[in-house]
Amino acid sequence: MKYYLLLTSFIIFILFGCKENTSKNELTFKFIQLNDVYEIAPLGDGAFGGMARVAHVRDSIKKENPNTFLFMAGDFLSPSLLGTIKVDGERIYGKQMIEVMNAMEFDLVTFGNHEFDLKEKDLQKRLNESSFPWMSSNVRYLKNDSKSFFEVQHHTDTLSVNDTFSLLVSDDKNKQIKIGFLGVTLPYSVKDYVFYGDIYDEAERAYDELKNKVDLVFGLTHLELGQDKEFLKRIPQIPLVMGGHEHYAMSVSVGNSKITKADANAKTIYIHTLVYNTVNKDLRIDSELFNINDKITSKPEIENIINKWGNILNLKIKEIIDEPSEVIFNSPELLDGTEISNRSIQTNLGAILTQSMMWSFDNEVDAALVNGGSIRVDDMLPKDLSSMDVFRTLPFGGGILKVDLEGVLLKEVLDYGSSKKGTGAYLQRHNIQKATNGEWLIQGEKIIMNKTYKIAFSDFLLKGFDIPFLNPTNKHVKNIYRPNKEEKAYDIRKATILYLKSLSN
What is the CATH number of the domain that holds 292? Predict the structure, then answer.
C-alpha cells in the first residue's frame, strides 16, 4: 500500500508538478475544479470517482504547490439515495456531503440548482454546518418580499454568502497577488425563499465592484453552456469560468477566455495551472482533465467518513426494504444507468422503468414517459439487480400519473424532449417510437392530433420544470389520475421493484 501511495503521488507530480518552471516575475497557482457531485463513494464497482481519491490528488498537488485551491461549481447537496434517508427523525439532505467537503477543506463553492431542492430549514442547516465559504452574485434569501444574503450561522459568528470572494496568492519570494471570484446560478429551482437576480446584470455589477480590488477575476458558475458563453461575452475580461450543470466534461473557448466543466460525480476533475507575470500582467492557463479512477489512492481520513455514511445507508435501507441486497431480477446484460446515455439515447434501463410505469396501471395506458434526469445512479447496473439498485437509480422516488392528453400536446412534448438531448429533459419512453421520416408513432401508429391518449408520466414531468408547457393548466391536458398510497403507481421505485419481481416469477 505504501508503495502504491508513493507511485500515485509520483504520477500526479509528473503530470502537474513539472509545469512550474517560471521566471522570477511569475507566480504559479493551481485550481482544482469539481461540479455536480452527488455520490461521495466510487461508482462502477469502485472503478471511477470517489471523493477520498480527489482528496489524495489535491493533497499531492498542494504538497508541491501550497497555492492550490479546491472549488465546487454547484450541485452537491441533492439528489442522492443517501440524502433521502432519515437519521434521528430528520432526512440527511446533503449532510454527508458537507462532512466530506469540510474534511477536504474546500476553498469556495457556489449554489447549483439542486441546492434548492432542500426546504429552507434544511438548506440553512447545511449552510451552518459548512466550514468552507459559499458565494453567489445573483442568488438571495427572500422573506416577506425582502432580499438579503444567505447566511452561514456558526456558534461564534455569522458569515454572509457574499456576491464575490477574494483570496491572496503568494510565494516564498515575496510575490503576492489578490484574485477574485464571482458566481451565478441559473433560475431553475423555484422556491418561495429564493430570489434569482438576472444572471448577466448581476454578474456585470459584481465584476464592476470587484475588478479594481483584485489583480484577476474568475468565474465559478452553475449555468447552461449557452448562458456561460453569454456570461463571457458580457465580461470578456474573465479568463476562466469553472462551471457545472451539464454533467459531462468540456472545455469551450469564448474569445480569449474559456469555460471548463468536469464530469459529474468526480469521474474527472479539472486541474488548472495558472502562471501570472506580476510585471507585465500576462496570465497563462494550462487546464488538464484528470481521471479519478481505481489507480488513485484514497485519503484514509476521507475514506473513513465515506464508509461511515455507507454503513448508515445500508442500515436505514433495511428499515424500508427487508432484503435490499436480494436479487429481484436477472438481466441478460448490464443496465445502462449512466447520465450521458439516459440524457441522450433510449437505454435498456429507461425501457425497464417505463415498462414498469405502464405495468403499474395494468398496462391500461397507451405509453409511458419519464425524464432522463430522474435516473441519478450514473452507473452501469449489474445483471443481478437488487432493490437497492432501484433506489440508487431513483432517489427522488415520486408517483406515476395517468394523464389523458391530446395528440397535439403529446407530439409537442416528444419534440421538446428530443430537442433537449444531452439534458435531463430528454425522455425515456415505452410504446413510442420515432419513424425514419421523423414522425412519432404510438404503438406503431401515427399520432392523431385531436385524439386523446392515456400516458403514464412521472409526476415530476407534470410540474413543468423540464418541459415548461407540460402542466395541469395546459388546455390539452384533459384529466390527471393520481394514485393513492395503496396502489403500485404511488411510487415509481415500488412499481419498478414489483414489476421486476413479476418477471422473475
Answer: 3.60.21.10
DSSP 227-252: HHHHHHHH-TT--EEE--SS-S-EEE
Cα–Cα distance measured from residue 27 to residue 383, given in angstroms and rounded to the nearest whole number: 52
pLDDT one-digit tens code per residue, 460-472: 999 998 999 999 9
Cα–Cα distance between 380 and 271 in angstroms, integer? Answer: 27
Same domain, 277 and 357: no
Contact 327, 385 (CB under 8 A): yes
Phi, psi of 392 (to 5 degrees): -65, -35
Burial (Cβ within 10 Å: 0-12, 13-18, ≥19) of residue 64: middle
Same domain, 259 and 389: no
| End position of a domain, from candidates 304, 338, 367 | 304
- Residue at which a domain ends, from 248, 269, 304: 304
Whole-Å CA distances, 93 to 77, 149, 392: 6, 22, 15
What is the pTM (predicted TM-score) of this model? 0.83
Q: Which three cell numbers stand for residue 496?
A: 419498478
| pLDDT tens-digit map of 184-227 | 999 988 899 999 999 999 999 999 999 999 999 999 999 999 99
User: Is-contact 152 158, C-beta < 8 A?
Assistant: yes
CB 138 within 8 A of CB 101: no
What would the grid cell of residue 127 be?
449552510
